[in-house]
Structures are given as C-alpha cells and as structure tokens.
Amino acid sequence: MPFFSVARTVERYRAELDTALAKLDSSALVDGPLTDMLERRLEQYTGAAYCVAVGSATDALALVLRATGVGPGDEVIVPAYTFFATASTVVHVGATPVIVDVDPDSYAIDPRQVEAAITPRTRAIMPAHMFSQMARMQELCEIADRHRLMMIEDSAEAIGMRFGGRHAGLWGRVGVLSFFPTKTLGAFGDAGAVITDDAELADRVRRLARDDGSGWASSCDDLAAAVLGFRLGHLDEEITVRAALAERYSTMLAGLSPVRTPRPPTDHDPVWYVYLIECDQRDDLVRHLAERGVETEVYYPRPLTEQPCFDATNSVRHPVPVSARASGRALALPLHADLTQAEVDLVCAHIREFYGGRDA
Amino acid sequence: MPETFRRDLLAATVAEIADSGEFILRAYCAELESALGERTVVTASVPAGLLLVLTAAGVGPAYPVHLADGVRPAVAGVLRRLNVALVSVEEADCHIADHPDDPDQLLVARAGRPGVVVIDLGPSSRWAGVTVAAAVRTSDADLAERVRWLRNHGQDGRTRFLHQLVGFNARMDEIAAAYLLRVHFSGEDGRR
C-alpha cells in the first residue's frame, strides 16, 4: 500500500485531465495562460487578493522574504518541527532563523516560545501550519503587532485550512502554498505559489519571480498549472474524502494505548493533509508495516535544531524538547484520495497486531 | 517556438507518471543523466543550475568572476544574488561565457579546476523540453556530488530529511525527464 497515490483519481477523471492538457499552448509553456488562469482560480479559492504561481513553495518563501526586505542582520523566528525550507530560505536571504519549540498538539510554533525569543534584531515571525491544522494565529498576530514584527506564514501545507473564515496564509502579511505531489492539492512535479492581500508586495514578488535578471526568478510551468487546474476542481471533494479516512483511522486506533492519534483543533475545521500519529517503538512499527507492504513517512525524524547544516554561525537554536520528543515518535500513515476505508482498516489491523492488543 | 512539441507523447507520459506515483528525481531523471553523459546532474533551470554550481564551488561574496558579453540576463542575476565581484578576464578566478557553438550551453571555468557546463533543456532551447529544465555536467566528481546534494535541500541522497548543506529546491520532475528521453534518446513514442 503506497504512502501516497493519485492513480485511481486520475483514472476516474482521465478525460478531464486530457482536456486540461489539450489546452497547453506549445509557444507559451512557462508562465503562460494556464498559469495565469491558475493564479486567478487560487485567488478565488483562498480569498487572496493576489496569487503568484512559482516553481516551488521553497522558491515562494525565499521570494517572500526577499520581497519584504528581510536580509542580513535580521532574525526570523521559525518552528523547530517543520520542513527544512521554513529555515533554509531565511538563510538564503542572508538572515538568521531563530528556531523555537512547538505546541505538542498542533505541532505549530508555540506563541510563548516566540515571545521569549524576540530580540531587537527580530524582523518577522514565520509560523508553519502543520499536517491538519493552523497555528494559533490570533495569539501570534497579537504578538507580532505588539512588537511591530512582520507575520509571514509558511502555509505550504495548508490549502483549504481556514480559521475564522480566513484562509491560511492570509492572517499575516503574506503566505505560500506548496503543490508538491503529495500535498492536498498536488501537481505531478514541483510547483508553489505566493498568496497575499498586499498589492505592493504581490507586485514586488511578481517582478522578482518573473524577471530573469533578478537572481530570484522562479516560474510556473503551464503543464503544472494544467494539472493543478484539473485537480483544483476536485479539491473540496478530496478534502472531504481525507476527513472521512482520518476519522476512520482515529476510530480504529482508539483505545490502543501505545498510539496517540492526532488531536484535531477545537476552534477550526481540520484539513487532513497528513494523518500523523505518535507511537511507542516507532521505528519497529515502521518495519512491521513495511514488511506487510504498508508505506509510511516519518515527519520529521529530527528537529531543525539537529540538522547538521544549522549551527551557531547561521542560526539561533533554542531548546526544543517538544519537537525532540515528537521526532522520535511521530509517524504519518497513508492518506490520500485514492485510499479506501478497507485499506485504512487493514493498516490499523497491522498496527494493532504489532502492539499485540495492548489496549488501554 | 519548439517545433518538436509532441502533445500525445506528453499526455501519455503524464498519465504514466501519475499512475506510477514517482514524480521527482526518480528513475527517469537518473536515466536522463546517464543519457546526457557521465557526471551529469539534472536540475530545475539554467539559473538554478548555475546557483548550485557556484555555491558548490564556494563562489560567493567578493569572489572575482568574469562574465563574458552577451550571456543571458539570468546569469548576471545569479551573480548579483551571490554578491560576487565582477572583474576583468585577467583578474578573474572564475569565468562564465556562452558556448561558442551552442547557445544552449553555459560554460563555467575555474582556475585549476575542471570546467562545468550548464545545459538548457527548457522549451526555448533546441532540446525543447515541456518545462523549464537544465543539466549540469562536469568531470569534477566532488563538485558534481555537492551540486547533487544542493539541488535537493542539501540532503545527501542516503538519509531522508538529513540536511548536510543549506540546499535549495532545484529538482527536475520525472515528466520532464521522461519526455526529453523519449524525444531525444529513445526514438519511441509510447510506454517502455
């Protein structure tokens, strides 16, 4: 059982995909009309005033940091439990990522840790919305306002997530989206986007991204835009399917004491990009599942503070006990629109078998 | 305009990749690297390839670089981003120029080191790929290895999510690689 698959979904809607691909204009394959159309549709979907599609969410974050003028001498507070690009892009613009711990339930940056890490050099806070839910944006925005800091959201995983009616990425000044293939809205290769309500910032991002001579150019292939346009039409239905599958996992794993199922947010609806459990003997369970043909992923095997490329010369690393504990226990189970309830039940049966019925 | 755009071939390739679930830097990218020559590293674009090469070679702030006339603007952009010092031919330790006979090839020469070629494989090149794409070729094994790590977030290709270097996302997609292979190297239209 693959960790991720889109084969059945494509099979089901093959005619739609072919129609989308037929619209490719061979004389405008990069940043062409389909990319333009995708940007307008993403604006509509997220409610953003502006969207700029680029080559990846990593490029999008770097462009956002560059366009907001973050650079040498500036500190950006980032979470320890996130994908690498949340911090690497800060280094790429010459600024310093200040890595702090996360909340054990949402895995998003802990507002108390943010407040404690602020220095006179702090320029921005960059929360990342992880796996299924948003960071505590109200509290974080209050902190940012109080200290006159910029709020940049790493909303790469967060398409479809909304808190208080506002889409992820639009609580702060600017956000990004990732269309990495396994994402809730995935292309069949790398792609990403910047979303914002700030006209001037959107213009600056667009000029940096589309000007070959800027040094930060990043384009969106119309092929990716065609695939994303096709998949966007089914996004809400896929989110619903993912929610039902996540609920099934939680039901089937309930009461199994070595496993902690995800704790959904209480103040907004989750969007299940990743179904992440925490469990005892994680690495043995990975092997047990692999031997039975079930692929899993470890998101993430180490906090950013333990990445060999970050040290005292290019980052500030605060103690991150919550992230460190999660990195030894977290495991993402298969979750995608191709998955069936029967397959979820099978994964859960294998997990129960591994723990030998150690129910609470 | 790319004259070789093969819509049916592309549609079949997209369907195959979607079915396989192997999307980025997998078997087709490796096969394209072999087809393009030893120590070739496929990447996202020419500027991305140049950024990887210069970063891997330690070309950074104040490094003396000579840029030949007429080279595509993206190159000057990357050099500005890295804050190199643009100097005369005589003063430079690193020289960047277009290939005299092939406008799709960018040459990077460093004092006392093997040369590097960055090859444009994108839609406006003679390779006429379906996406922006490029390849880095060098006989410098160490440099090629560092470029390989840097293109995928500094991961060493063995341990996932272990970032040895502060790398970039400059990867090639499998669809791009499979399409290029089929158009230029296989002579076949369909699935293999």
Query: What coarse outline of chain A follows from CA principal-axis ratios?
Result: globular
> Greatest chain-chain interface?
A-B, 51 and 50 residues
Distance between the termini of chain B: 28 Å
| Number of helical segments with 4 or more residues of chain B | 6
Percent of residues of chain B in beta strands?
Answer: 15-25%
Structural class category of chain A: alpha/beta
Elements of chain B, N to C (H/E): HHEHEHEEEEEHH
Number of strands of chain B: 7
Radius of gyration of chain A: 20 Å
> What distance lies between the first and last C-alpha atoms of chain A, to the nearest angstrom?
28 Å
What value does the average pLDDT of chain B take?
94
Kindly name the structural category of chain B.
Answer: alpha/beta
Q: What is the strand tally of chain A?
A: 13
Determine the strand fraction of chain A and express it as a percent band. 5-15%
Poorly predicted runs of 5 or more residues of chain A: none
In spatial order, strands of the major sheet of chain A run 1-9-8-5-4-2-3-12
Q: Biggest β-sheet of chain A, characterized?
A: 8 strands, mixed
**Taking Cα atoms only, what radius of gyration of chain B do you get, to the nearest Å?**
17 Å
Outline of chain B, from the CA principal axes? globular
